[in-house]
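Reminder to self: tokens first, then the designed residues, so the page reads top to bottom the way the pipeline ran.
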């Protein structure tokens, strides 16, 4: 059975709309994270100024082997 030109165009438009709709909806889906991240873990690797901007100034400062903690 052979399709006419309008049938092919309608099929193509429908496929484009179905594809676009599924992509649009998938952009709204939020992936839930079950991993609990502590503030300490979130700040690891950040510069001192970024840590201070987020956490504020330390109450006490100590050092061990040339590293501040």
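Designed residues (69 positions):
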């Amino acid at each position: 059975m052979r399709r006419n030109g309008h049938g092919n165009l309608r099929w193509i438009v429908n496929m484009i709309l179905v594809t676009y709709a599924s992509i649009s909806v998938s952009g709204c889906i939020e992936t839930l994270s079950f991993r609990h991240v502590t503030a300490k873990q979130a700040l690891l690797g950040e510069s001192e100024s970024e840590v201070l901007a987020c956490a504020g100034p330390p109450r006490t400062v100590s050092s061990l082997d040339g590293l501040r903690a």
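The longest helix spans residues 5-26.
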